[in-house]
Amino acid sequence: MMRVASFFAGIGGFDLGFERAGMNVVFQCEIDPFCRQILQRHWPNVPLHDDITDLAPTAIPAADLWCAGWPCQDLSTANTDRQGLAGSRSGLFYVFMELVAAVQPQWLVLENVPGLLSAERGTALEAVIDTLEAIGYWGAGFRVTLAIRAYPTTAIASSLSQVLDRRVPTNSLLTAANCLGILRRENRAGRKLDRPFVNALSETLRLWYNVAAASGTPWQKASAPRYAPKLESIKAAIQTDPYSVARNLTWNEWEKLMGFPPGWTVAEGDSLVTPSSPESLNGSDDTSSKLPMSDD
Q1: What is the pLDDT of residues 91-150, one digit of tens each?
Q2: What is the bridge-based pairing of β-strands 48-49 and 107-110?
């Protein structure tokens, strides 16, 4: 059985996937306190180190495969001031590679965002390749996998229908302030949002406008960041008019979207603010586009 050492382990996506493939996780390294609680819950007997910058090569158990999804913040296109591999977070790639050079595991599996292709005017990916080549780890190439976009194709609709919860918690809806902020920011930046997303934001604004009008609330107040109408008002508006609103995914939906079992990110104990129980967010398997609301 292949042995796996996981670096920048997060909540254990690589780890779970390799275990499902019949491998054995023998070491993890993760600094985020929340993620560490999740890892300790699912791998209580696996050594877990926190800070990779003070990790000694001799402290890592023997493993056939090392995996690492090193920090993406300085590479991601969502960061308007990204520093590339020179950044303090994404630059941890070099710290990891020093460990690789010292131990020389048989297999490496690395992951990062598509922004790696364009960061530092395209030279960040070259630096990664050069570093791998310098210590004898290049030859298999790389693969770019893009995330699902907003286009409502049949395949995507079918995929999302298995992820989205039937009952929608009210606190997952984007507020009017959220929607206006997104539209204004994208307009100032000269970016054009996908039409389905614009439509959903507009529909969400219409929902809040109707809720406010029904309760006699001025639109200016309804557009404020802290506007929180009563659940009954939202339910009444939805019962009289179908909406296709923009909202955040629930914890449970994120878990399913990424292939984790339900409740994966619920840590044991009371020291952590945890998501609601799966039962409070899941309805039946009906994937209707209507919005039955939950106040959970």
Answers
A1: 999 999 999 999 999 999 999 998 998 999 889 999 999 999 999 987 655 665 554 444
A2: unpaired
- Domain co-membership, 90 together with 215: no
Name the domain count of the chain. 2
Tell me, yes or no, whether 85 and 22 share the same domain: yes
Cα four-point dihedral sign 19, 70, 269, 252: negative
Q: Are both 172 and 129 inside the same structural domain?
A: no
In terms of residue numbers, what domain contains 111? 3-134
- Taking the CA of residue 118 as centre, how many other CA atoms within 13 Å lie in the half-sphere pointing to its CB? 9
CATH number for the domain spanning 35: value is 3.40.50.150
Find out whether 82 and 119 touch, Cβ atoms under 8 Å: yes
Cα 88 → chain centroid: 21
Model confidence over 259-295: pLDDT tens digits?
Answer: 899 889 987 653 333 333 333 222 223 333 344 445 5
Phi-psi region of 190 (alpha: psi -120 to 50; beta: other; left: phi over 0): left
Q: Does residue 34 sit within a domain?
A: yes
Q: What is this structure's pTM?
A: 0.74
One domain for residues 225 and 115: no
Closest listed residue to residue 112, CA positions, set 78, 145, 82 = 145
